[in-house]
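Researcher: Structure for this, please.
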Amino acid sequence: MRSSILLIAATCFAASFSAPTADNHNFVLHEKRDGAHHQWTKRTRAHPDEILPVRIGLIQSNLHKAEEYILDVSDPSSPNFGRHWSAEKVANTFAPAKKTHDGVAEWLVKSGIDATRHTYSTGRNWIQFNGTVAETEQLFNTEYHYYEHDLSGGYRIACDEYHLPQSVREYVDFAMPTIQLEGMRPIRNLLPKIAAKSSQTGLTGLANCYDLITIECLRALYQFGPGNTSAAGNEMGIGEWADFLYLPDLPLFFANYTTQPIPSNTVPEFISIDGGQTANLTYDNETGSGVESALDFQTSYSIIYPQKLRLYQVGDGVNIDSVGTFNIFLDALDASYCTYLGGDAPYVDPEYPDPNEGGYEGPLQCGGAPISNVFSFSYNQIEAALPVSYQVRQCHEWMKLGLQGVSVLFAAGDSGVANRYNAGYENSCLTSPDVGPYVDVNGTRFSPSFPTNCPWITAVGATFLKGENISDGEVAVALPDSDDPKNDYYSGGGFSNVFALPSYQSAAVTNYLTKYPPHYPSHIYNNSGTSRAYPDVSAIGLNVTIVYLGKTFGVGGTSASTPIFASIVTLLNEERIAAGKGPICFLNPMLYAHPEAFNDITVGGNPGCGSAGFKCQPGWDPVTGLGTPNYPKLKEVFLSLP
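Model: Predicted structure, token format:
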């Protein structure tokens, strides 16, 4: 729905509604949005008869053992290393206890929500019912309003805070729709910044790597050879939300920029999720639509071939929330996470069937999509703009994929210690946690990203060549724009304000903070030394070659470095499978246990928020992580593990 609908609603329902009538003497605050509404303007009270799809996330069992479980199968020193869990074991281990179901169900019935209206998820970790605004306001002792998005004009219904009875609170993770407003943003690539190099079509060799990073340059830099195996079940996955792959560019890229022959009819396996389509009709140099997919697939395919790629095209591109969050992707992989059959957030995640004109008319996909061993993603959100409960619950889902043998890699972002939050890619930082609004274009506090802040994924930063020759090594990527600072490009990195420091990372982060302490106070960044830090690793992320609409470009972004690193992991898994072993699952414990397998990056930084940001230092740092891959050393490590 668009702003015109919102204005009609405001006209019809502008009358003042009475406050909820529930007896609230035993209610306690459960969640409250920090600061002002990020990119949303509160309008009128929601009409009391409007229907809300209410979903209550039940406290899952054994999540306090999440780190123990994931490290048991991913830590090289563990006797159970590589013994991945089945999906059934994951679902059974984390299913909520019976007293949790019974306690919440009893409360709903006493509140007038009859049991015949309750629906449980497949994994019984969600309970859902459709209720009016009036019922929901009374249930949560809150008030709902219409909120209009400042850029898209779309609207959502939400509240600023909500309450639960003290006797029920211990059973509830969080409820929706309540305080959720923020959506997902693709990480910008740098096509508009880099001039077309169409005259260099067919450029080969290593003499011009500083101008265009080709597959040959990457092979020489990281010392890996062409792929020569294609193990069944080891197909690499790449998720796309806002971008679409233009297939005619693939054979042109293969013909001009790969020394290994790749048939011109080679295309990725297409996996449509909730109306994802194979083509978009808006390919042009003005919008840059298609650049992200070109960057992801052309480079990755050339690295891993003859292994195959999977394109997970998520969302119909019509829904105003089609660039939503990662939940509808998780739905398609795991039926136990789906809406009503799952875990989406109304007014944060897209709705299917799509009510918008021309939208996908089928139901939300719930399970059935193939699961790859390695996934690469170039999208993220602003940590401070999302409810903590929402981030924690989704982070646990990435952990569950890790338990099943999946490696998940996310781009660390292109704004240094800042963040990008709108269509113009304007940087935003944060104000002090004690002062609102928390997300602020003019803020000075560093702004971490989600889900790169999740300790169960691998966050990838970006580097570039130090000099004209490959042998000169690498530095942290730096591309300032004196004319328009919003186009500055620095590798994203920092310290989470939500997630704790995982044990696998503790020694590396402590070493950095002890030997090279950043000279910023606690109101500038989380300097506690007890928080999740990122990135974990890096790879080349500037002047990476793509063919776009028949022309050659050099493109940059951590959205370039992430699929490069993910492709190298896929090659390493091929090596293990050929040796009769299984793929590595969650990567980080193994990576941090072997810093010698990386090219340490000690030059550069990631400015932002009116500061110089962090600096590269020997060892791990919050600019380039452990460094960039040394394939022969990583191969030795991978093959030495059981």
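Researcher: Any notable elements?
Model: Residues 3-60+97-180 form one domain. Confidence is low (pLDDT under 50) at residues 1-24, 191-200, 318-324, 339-365.
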